[in-house]
# Entry
Amino acid sequence: MVAPQYAQMINEAKASNPNLIEDRPVKRRKKNSMFVEKGLGDVELLEPVAPSSTVAEEDMDNVDGLFEEPKEEPVEGLEVFRPPNLLPSHSQTIDISEDDSDADADFEDVDFEPAIPSRGPGANDEDVEPEHFELNLTATAADSVPSRAPRKKGRVFSKQERLVHLNTHKLHMVCLLASLRVRNRWCNDGQVQKRLLRLLNEKNRQWFKIDPSWTQFRRAESTKKGLNIAGPIWLANFKITARGMRRAYYDDDEGGEFRVSPDMDDVLDLEDFRKAAIKMEGSRIVGAMLYCALLRACGLDVRLVCSMQLLPINAGSKSRPLLRGVSVSGPTTPVRTPTPLVNQPPPDNSTGRSIPSIASRRRIDPMEALEPQAPRPVPKLPKMKHIIESPFPVFWLEVLEEAHQRWMPVDPLVSCTVDKRLKFEPPASDVENAMVYVMGLDTDGFVKDVTRRYTTWYLAKTRKNRVESTPGGERWLRRVLRPFTSRWPTDTDDIEDQELLGFEQREKMPTSIQDFKGHPRYVLERDLRSNEVLEFPRHEIGKVKAGKGGKMEPVYRRTDVKIVRSADGWYRHEGREVKEGEQPVKIRPARRTKVEDDDQEGEDARVALYTEDQTGVYAAPPVVNGRVPKNIYGNLDLYVPSMVPAGGVHIPHQKAGIAARILGIDFADAVTGFEFRGRHGTAVVKGVVVAGEFDEAVMAVIDAYADEERQLVEDKRKLLVLRMWKKFMVGLRIKERVDAYEVDGEDKPDAVLKEAVEDEHETGMTSEEYDMDEGGGFMPGDDGGGFLPEDDDGGGGFLQD
DNA sequence: ATGAAAGAAGTTGCTTTGTGTACG
DNA sequence: GCGTACACTTTGCAACTTCTTTCA
# Structure
């Protein structure tokens, strides 16, 4: 039951801003910015993947099932993610047609291209209407002409576009998590582990065999020593022949075709992985995975750790850097062999340089690949340059140091370190690698967010690039990770949580002015919003130097920031009023609303602002003797429930006003807000306020009203039914009469009947005489609410329906 | 190289209790 | 002359955001 959750979450994200489909002119937009317009709609793509609801239990393997065997072009899922619609077609994104594994059972009932995007279970009612969306799509993708030349770099993204970026980021995370889970599971593969164990001899492995009787120190040192021995052995045996995961970028070149680098990692399934274990080569990803498998085989508790290279939430002006160290020439996309390769010999891989097509590789039996190949002409392959990647790893491991129940980072390939957590974070300027989310997957496939262990400025910098910095982001991430989290935390988990919390708590105060902006813990006065104020008395907790040669600025706690509002604002938004004698804590110039206001007092008008502490809950004048006090507009402000006057009751029913009038009691329309249409705001009335003692009376009248309405509907239905019976009986009667008149030689009573009935049709069956003379018994009694007006087409209409 | 400041160019949020005309 | 239904209206400004450039 994982996928539907995500679909729902993404839908919620969409629904949370219904305005985003609002069809309004966007002043500056890149031509062909199709993904931006279309991306949202395509988030729907996740929904159909939902397995049938019969899978009730939290079957986590479902995730694996769904993402088990990505075919076609899954490499991009690892390296660069693109919104599904950027690809030539959906079917190409998730094409499972040639999949013959059991995994596709999950897909069988799935329609990947629903004509109308279906609503997710529990999807918000504010969901985008598909037709509406379609319209917008066409309009913007085809007709949008920027009012001026788009800025080359650093263009400003609209709210819509930014929302698409956010949703893309989320979707990317979900997909990558699923992908990681599959890959992590491969690291448990018995065949792979058995094979890899050959690398370490008995003596090497002895370090991992901990004797519980040893001292804590000795146990810890033994593990470390073992890792320090195994690392170099690994480095010497593993060869990097493919490119691993890179930092992801949104493509500037929106119309361009997506290309996968020819040297991209191409270990796509367990068979590939087993083969890589034998050949001991591949990308950094494969290297880390294989080393993970090896250490797990040695009996260690090992996590596969990935610094997720997601498409960013805030798309910057940076465009994708060129790959460095690519093959000089050669295909830009993996060559696909058009015909089935069942009987063809596998391509020669003995050079270790060739990157055969994905299609052909997946059919190679790993054992067969080891057999000596019959010599055959090999086409000259492009020479591969040395692959240049980030000097910091994207994949590495964490090994549980059993003695202290502590996870130690281990990287055998890039930094070649053991237990050096600060050697993993790349600088912000690294175009190949950005550290935003670091996830560790243990043997059981549980995911732990260990980002805090590796980042120096988690709160000041890293957090700003994560979903937690967006509204509702924390909850979203929690929900995404929930299916990947063990429900029974162990002591080790608790220890680690404390450790990670400690990293965060010990984070130093930022040294640059800009890092204070949006910092969850600190704030500078200069960054205060216009509706924010520092609590008095001010509590300075530090100083920071503003720029070089600048002066020192005081630093305050974020928790000391209070929201201020005008007296009117408190009243309208919270139903509170400023207490008597309170002095404003801040004063800001009033906004001039109208041109006609521009007299003297309009120019230096000011608005006094107060904190919540300075206000109390507003108490409306109470209802006395059934009289409801009204304001100058003759109604009652009811912006929040607390504004109902004492002794009164709010009846939020459309008919409440009418009901109160019928009863002849005093009432006031309840104004719950304003609708801004055109130049003027119009009061939104939701029901009325009456004296508490009339509550039941009013409700009774309303109910009676509703009953009457129901009765009306019921009567209409009854009449319809009776008419049908009448028609039937009339027909029968005619038939009876015609049959009675039958003469010799003329035996076509049916035809006569038909004619008679049709006749009846045309006359609109207003033949009351029938009812009066003979058919009276079929009509409702006169007390049944009287005779309802008969529609002109009523007679014919119901028979056709 | 890095960060601060200023400028540019866009987006967002606040605004907040109608009016005029045709017609029966 | 009065009451009712209905069409028309759909701002504009300042704050804010996010980028670039320039400078130290």
In short: Confidence is low (pLDDT under 50) at residues 13-154, 327-380, 594-603, 762-801 of chain A.
